[in-house]
Amino acid sequence: MPSVPASTASPSASGAPSMPAAAQGTDAAAAKAFATYWVQTLDYAAPRGDTSALSRASDQGCVQCQAIIELIDTVYAADGAIVGRGWTPTSSSVIHNPDGTVVVNMVVNVHRQTIIKKAGAHPRQFPGGRRVKSFWLSHSESSWRVTKLEQPE
């Protein structure tokens, strides 16, 4: 699988990553850039509790995406915290399906993470590791959205 650029999105004025120009379009390179952007929005959201950019990049029907967003929102609403370095994309490949969906299979290094679900709760440790994440994307009008996220438990 080809390598993924270390950073394709840049922080916006609010600090959240902004959509990179490389994600515009419907080709494989744009799909990869969007999937990398989605990971960067997750890495921004988790330690801060700001899921607005992640929500915009995720379809309401994406069960895994919504579960991640809900976990982050719930933790921060209860004065908890998520601590860790997030996911680092290392490589990816793209599959264009006949129905128009695009799947980006991305190898990521998932870094160790600690989640404190609410103020005063016992921290829960999650080990890191190398994982494959499959991002099912749809493109409408001028933007991509993650419609399905498959990831190992």
Summary tags:
single chain; alpha+beta; Nuclear Transport Factor 2, Chain: A; three-stranded antiparallel beta sheet; 3 helices; 27% helix; 35% strand
Word description of this protein:
The chain has a four-stranded antiparallel sheet. It has one domain: Nuclear Transport Factor 2, Chain: A (Roll). It has 153 residues and is of the alpha+beta class. It has three helices and nine strands, in the order E-E-H-H-H-E-E-E-E-E-E-E.
Q: What would a concise description of this structure say?
A:
By secondary structure, the chain is of the alpha+beta class.
Helices and strands, in N-to-C order?
EEHHHEEEEEEE
Structural class: alpha+beta
Largest sheet: 4 strands, antiparallel
| Estimated helix fraction | 25-40%
Count of DSSP-assigned helices: 3
What is the number of beta strands? Answer: 9
Contiguous runs where pLDDT drops below 50 for at least 5 residues: 1-13
Tell me the overall shape.
globular
- Tell me what portion of residues adopts beta-strand conformation: 35-45%
Count of domain modules: 1
CATH hierarchy, class: Alpha Beta
Any chance you could write out the topology, listing elements then pairs?
Blueprint: E1 10-11, E2 17-18, H1 28-48, H2 52-57, H3 63-77, E3 81-84, E4 87-96, E5 102-110, E6 113-116, E7 124-126, E8 129-140, E9 143-150
Antiparallel strand pairs: 1-2, 3-6, 4-5, 5-8, 6-7, 8-9
